[in-house]
Amino acid sequence: MKQLIIYVSIIFPVMAAYMIMMISGNVTVSYSGFGMDSSGVLYVGKDGVIEKYHNGSLIGDFSSRTSRGYAFAVQSDDTVLLSTSSTVYSLDLHGNEIEKQEDVLSKIFYQLDKTKKSFRSADGKLYNVISPFGRTRIVCETGEEIFTMPLKDYIVKVILSLCGLSVFVFSSLMVYKFRIRKESFFNF
What we know:
Blueprint (H helix, E strand, L loop, with lengths): L1 H23 L8 E4 L5 E5 L2 E6 L2 E7 L7 E4 L5 E4 L3 E5 L5 E6 L4 H7 L4 E3 L5 E5 L6 E4 L4 E4 L2 H36 L2
Antiparallel strand pairs: 1-2, 2-3, 3-4, 5-6, 6-7, 7-8, 9-10, 10-11, 11-12
Helix pairs in contact: 1-3
């Protein structure tokens, strides 16, 4: 029982801090998509917002129209096609709505979701999303790295993964201890 109290007193504050950082938008551990327009601006989908980067620097952002999951892609005509699984938005590069329609059976959402791992820029270059050791990076087919998950986000992702692993290990140990106590109680 003492181990349980110690474990909960460590894990609970860590998980609470993670939830606060996620809700406030300070940390992102997974991305909703990536794209690039004809002028070389990179679009990175985070929780509730799509950020815009040029030459590695954040130059702006706009709302993703949802706080839930979504998928998007930058189209060849320099518009952003965004699906929330139930609604499809066509947006200009500043996030202003051009058109809105229903996403019947989430068809467009699933098509856009496929672009989370690779996409082509307007000049035809292929960009792949890789995650060595869980840290998301975008690499051009030429080998040039254009985006890396911020270190703070990566550290939180590692800590969250370790917390998940610790819950599994701790639960297994508690079940094992309970079974041993139960067997020794009946075998006196």
